[in-house]
Amino acid sequence: MKHTPGPWQWEDEQLFVHEEASGATVARVCDDDGYVSCPHAMPMSANARLIAAAPELLETLESVVKVCDDLGRDGVFSHVMAQARAAIAKATGQ
Description:
Layout: E1 8-11, E2 16-19, E3 25-28, H1 41-71, H2 78-92
Antiparallel strand pairs: 1-2, 2-3
């Protein structure tokens, strides 16, 4: 992996996303002016939660694709599997 390993957590007050083990800052979620306390705080909190969940979402999606591949179910769900593979490629920079 090229990204900071998960799990990640987020702080509601500051809208920082951290890697849990080291405490390294992964992201600071703010508006275009750099503010975290603004009328856009609700969407920004949702963005921070989504960012914090990203490593687990990626790992889960990779597991689902592997299980479907192992079961030979790719053809049955070809459209969804193509979307899953595209999302994995986007997240991993492939």
